[in-house]
Structures are given as C-alpha cells and as structure tokens.
C-alpha cells in the first residue's frame, strides 16, 4: 500500500461520513497486521448530490451517487470507496471489485409524519414524500387513497420539508435515521414483511481495485460473511431483472442458522400489478437462490416492470 497510507473516498453528506468513519475504524483494527500508518477520509461530491429536484432515473439512475467515487478509485486518487449498497447499480464496474460488506444495519423502513400519526391514521389524500417507485407502490397496497410527491435531498433536508408542511409524511430507511441520531422523529416502523426493503438496504459496501492484491486481502478480513451471503441473494435478483432506478422491486434475505430465506416483490411499471415470491435454501446456495427468484419474477411478470 502506497506509503502505508489508505485514502477512503466517500460522499460528503453527514450520513455518508458516519459510514466512512465506521469503515476507517474497521481498517485501523488491522493496521498493525498490514503495516498501515494512516487512514484518511476524502469527501467527494457526486452528481447525485448536486441534482436534488428530479428523479434519479431521469438523469442517469443509481450510478449518479457511485460513479464519481469510482472514477477517483480507478484514477488511484483514493484506495477504497465507501458506498451505501442500495445506491450502487447491480452490475460491477470493470476494474473494480465490491466484495466486502460491513455488518448490516437495521434494514427496515420508517414513516415520519406530522403530528406523529401512524400510516393508517393519515387523513385521506395526505401527501407522502418519496423518490422511490417501490415505496410508493408498497404504501399504495396499504392505503390506496394517499397522494405521492417526489422528495429528494439528505435526511435533514427531507425532515425540514416535512416540518414546512410541504408533505404530511415521508418514508425513509431506519438505518439512516438511527445513524444520524434522529430516531425520536419516527412515527412508525414497518417490519420487513410489511414493507420489503430494497436490495442491500442498510448495508455499507467497500469497493477497491481488482488488481490491488494487498487491499483485497485486508478487505477479506473486514468483510461480514453473514451479511455477504444475504447480499449475494438479494443482488442476484436485481441482476437477473436488470433492475434500475425505475424498477419497483423489494428484496430481502435473512439468515437463520444454515438456511437463507428470501422474499421479493416486483411491481409493474404503473404499480397496478404485484408479483410476490418467498423461498428458502441452504446458505451455500445463496447465489443460486437469488438467480432463480429473479428468473421466476421475470417470467411471471412478463416483463411488465420494464419500459
């Protein structure tokens, strides 16, 4: 490793930097073994951070958050990239490897509403803020009478917009709210069966260059294997579906002993049709389970989820 100094590249948001600091501490734990003298965090402004007023799918999709950081990694300006896995496209960028994941944070979804109301208690035609078609269609399965309006920006910005009465409620991930110490704002927490999260929700992914052998060895030590197994299954569903920002799909795997349980739901483009599957396999078949479920969803949906 150059000068025994490691540079971690991260988005500059408050939440991203909390995640990057977690990664820094994990790497420092192995500093002596790998003769690392210094680990620093470099803030990188991504295109996704700059564009706040339209859906990601209209300006390039998920890669808007990861692409800028990946370029710095390929150009050797940083050594490790830290991403929220849910923001990464399902296909790996050539020359890079994402094979290391920290232990998963809580993957559940939460509702933050004005007057601290539960979803069932929101007035008819209340406006719910989300930038996700998945969340919109999932909530419509529970409350068809609600209105949905695009909301973008970091967690603080979204809560501020809610408090300015631009929305009656917003849907966010528990992991982000909790990491920022904002749990007191939560009105309702949904189980992963009530609202199936997106693939990789709550997971911090570490990416490095494929040819960086020493760093790859280090990241093998940092990797949380149980999370890795779950992620393999979830991400394979996405890969088979060729899922992008417009694909309304929820996928969640949980591990119980030597079994992996996988649940997924996919919606047609307009949200009118829902396709739902559940399956279990031995943990060593995590890869195959994800691929099979992806293929089945593709078949039963008759590609109605794609333009």
Folded structure, characterized:
This protein has 307 residues and is of the alpha/beta class. The chain contains nine helices and 13 strands. The protein has helices at residues 14-29, 47-50, 63-74, 133-142, 155-163, 174-179, 213-222, 225-241, 286-301; strands at 5-11, 38-44, 80-84, 96-101, 109-113, 127-129, 147-149, 169-173, 188-190, 204-209, 249-256, 259-267, 274-282. The strands form three sheets. Strands 2-1-3-10-4 form a five-stranded mixed β-sheet, with helices on both faces. It has a five-stranded mixed β-sheet with strand order 7-6-8-5-9. Strands 11-12-13 form a three-stranded antiparallel β-sheet, with helices on one face. The model has no long low-confidence stretch (mean pLDDT 93).
Q: Outline the low-pLDDT stretches.
A: none
Number of helices: 9
Please report the distance between the alpha carbons of the first and last residues: 45 Å
| Structure classification | alpha/beta
Radius of gyration: 19 Å
Overall 3D shape: globular
Order of helices and strands: EHEHHEEEEHEHEHEEHHEEEH
What's the total number of strands?
13
Fraction in beta strands: 15-25%
How confident overall, as mean pLDDT?
93
Compact summary:
The protein is an alpha/beta fold. It has helices spanning 14-29, 47-50, 63-74, 133-142, 155-163, 174-179, 213-222, 225-241, 286-301; strands at 5-11, 38-44, 80-84, 96-101, 109-113, 127-129, 147-149, 169-173, 188-190, 204-209, 249-256, 259-267, 274-282.
